[in-house]
Automatic annotation (TrEMBL):
Pfam family, one: PqqF-like_C_4
GO cellular component: a single term: cytosol
UniProt keywords, alphabetically: Metal-binding
Molecular function GO terms recorded: metal ion binding; metalloendopeptidase activity
Name the record gives this protein: Coenzyme PQQ synthesis protein F-like C-terminal lobe domain-containing protein
InterPro entries found in the cross-reference section: Metalloenz_LuxS/M16 (IPR011249), Peptidase_M16 (IPR050626), PqqF-like_C_4 (IPR054734)
Start and end residues of each Coenzyme PQQ synthesis protein F-like C-terminal lobe domain: 7-105
Recorded superkingdom: Eukaryota
GO process terms (BP): peptide catabolic process; proteolysis involved in protein catabolic process
UniProt organism field: Alternaria alternata
Amino acid sequence: MRAKLLLLGQMTDEPCFNQLRTIEQLGYVVFSGPSFHDIWSGYRILIQSEKDCRYLEGRIENFLNTFEQTLNDMSNEDFESHKRAMINKRLAKLKNLSSEDNRFWNHIYSDSYDFLQADVDAATLEKLTKKDMVDFYNHYISTSSSQRSKLSVHLQAQAKAKEPSLDERKTAAATALKIILAEHKITANDEAFQARIQDVSSKDAIPDAVATHLTDDLKVDKEVANKVLDEAKAALGVAD
């Protein structure tokens, strides 16, 4: 389990940051990786953002869904490359005595006393196959797994960020809508949306403009349109 979580963290490190931080720009801080404790271990994704927590959770779930396919399609060469990178990290020589001291004391503080853990991890990683990781992901990480356990923590600051201007809200709506439409495999029409939203005079009217755009301009099915609208509202922090 430990080796599989380490390898999952290695494989998702760059794509998670690239998707959630660089492309979707959900927040300045985006972190992913394994987490190990005395009696449990897991995989976590953390986002620090001004956006609505429910929307952020939805984007994390979407990333996990997307990566499931990425893992299935990953070539053996890429898989072995990730595996070798993780093995090299575990076997990397400690740079100084302080680093070695910290490693040993961490094992003591955690009551594990597994002073050869890095070597054991490397040996276990060496034996892992792509099928092992696909089965592991489908069982423990996949959003469709009945065996999956998930803990979602939403921390909201008491102090509120500066209220964005109406133009900033319009820009945010256009950006969020484009991403959400792509996830639903719906072709966006930015020109039509800009025409709908340019005359909006208040933030409360933006969701109505989005709804009209979906049904009248894009001719989206009502059920799908409602789902897209809910996601867009969450992205704008005006979810019901």
